[in-house]
Amino acid sequence: MRRMSEEPRTSRIQRQVVQLILDRRLTAGxxxxxxxxxxxxxxxxxxxVREALKALQALDIVEIRHGYGxxxxxxxxxxxxxxxxxxxxxxxDDDTGALAEILQVREVLEEGLIxxxxxxxxxxxxxxxxxxxxxxxxxxxxxRMGSTFPDLDREFHEVLYASLGNALVPQLLAAxxxxxxxxxxxxxxxxxxxxxxxxxxxxxxxxALRARDxxxxxRAMAVHFRGIEARAAEExxxxx
Length: 240
Known about the structure:
mainly alpha, two-stranded antiparallel ribbon
């Protein structure tokens, strides 16, 4: 009973610290008030302040630098990545299904975003995408199981949406990508058994974009994701 009464108080103090950050318009890297100042401002004990700050550190909202103080964190998506990775791996009997759910969310995100960039990508940006695909082709031919190929795959998707100027987009894409790589590594799945097919699917996306074919680009992206999902299922059966 005592434990249940403590949890709401810790959560309330967390919200108060967050509100203090917002009210004072503190930005990432800015120092927070000292523990003593927070105790006085919030009217709580030192232990309560410390517990709240530790919880906020886990969310990357604050950063505790021992011996220096506490600062506003970067509010990165690291907690999301860690949570999704654990959620997927914890479904021991159906981690492929859990991973498919993550891929579906990313697919919906990218299919929607590609419609927005299809009509606005410049020729220079399309040329850059083409160069990434060419590098993927070379990497797939010379080092099928190396780390270069998946890195280029990731670069392609980052370059594709860079023109949106939306800082959250690459962070979300990177989060989903990292979860996929972590789960693949934990399960011993190979990077890409058919890089030539992956190259062709990326080239199809660029071809449609050059033609300003919005529907075609969206279809090509959907085909690309169907391939990823199928590959994950095959790898899971192979190691099961």
